[in-house]
Amino acid sequence: MVILSFFSPSLGNAQDSAAKEIPVLIPHSRLPWVAGLHIAGYTGTLLVLNETWYKDYPRESLHSFDDSKEWLQVDKIGHGWSAYNLARASAASWNWAGKTNKSSALLGAGSSFAFMTVIEVLDGTSSKWGWSWSDMAANTVGSGLFLAQELLWKEQRIQYKFSFHTYNYSENALEQRANELYGKKWYERMLKDYNAQTYWFSANLRSFLPDSKLPPWLNLAVGYGADGMYGGFENLAKNSAGQITFDRRDIPRVRQFYIAPDIDFTKIKTNKKWLKTTFFVLNAFKMPAPAIMFSSKGTKGYFIYF
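-> structure tokens emitted (306 positions)
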């Protein structure tokens, strides 16, 4: 989400992702600005990540860590979302600078994959984490989904989206555990609380059914989330001496699947550049709407699901 902000000044002319052909008369002076924006944005983000995530842990040689079974894979889906939307924003900026659709898509997907790989290297040289092949697979899916659609359809018919809701921890002990794992502030919870995150693949119906009379902005979204997670692999925590400090293995960890209507904001026509930019950014997020949830506990309907 932070990454998208680095590209927002250049998104006004790229409302339909990187699909629309740029007019011939594009100032070539935009290209170095966009290249500089990428370098500054990526470097700044890596510096912030180093200060907030890595500096307190000793560096080691590159090593791997199998976290493929953590958090019921919600974190992996999140990796894919980051890679997809970084590629989308990057490609739009290259398109604005005058690159062709194909070149913009390749540059966007390539820079996204490269950036996510650098983050994985930082993980792999930290004593706290490690290089994760499952993370890299998710990164590949995210950037690959963007690139494949641009090359195949020259538009993003299936958008990769995110939503977040405030999670109510019913017991004091569970709230305390959540504070330890995810933080107390709302933005910390939004980034870290996997119980409160849902990731969506949102398909534009009109793009697949061009002869229909459906509104061009109407999407159908399929989502994935999880519930009951109070640890990466299990609801159990131990201190450095091996003593159990938290044990709620009685709480089931449940996968949840959703279906809901959605909006493709880039299909809403406007001539206002600031509104096009706003719509572009909004398309990274699933809009609140009625939804049906399916899980091992049964089926549940929501009048409005965030």
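The radius of gyration is 20 Å.
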